[in-house]
Amino acid sequence: MTNKFQLLCQELVYTGIVTISLFITAIIHLSLTARADYRYALTYYSSYLGTSFFGTYIAAGVFGLLNFIAYGAGTAFLFLEWKGERSPNTVTPANGRT
Description:
Elements: H1 2-32, H2 36-49, H3 53-85
Helix pairs in contact: 1-3
């Protein structure tokens, strides 16, 4: 039981850190595309190179938010499982009688 508990706790911490990281990077992607100078750079280089970087950055931000929602749900489910598997603070007598 302790090995499963430790693994579940580690997975919960990892998933929580990844969830926060995904949210931060998605917001950065979406907020930087709203700046006028950044938008100019993306449209200037996209016309020069023949590719669309502006749409790519918007899509990266939107998919990052979708990943954030999915990882957030996973974190919530892991937390509920971790909370349900914690043993209560009960002490059993040394002779085995209850």
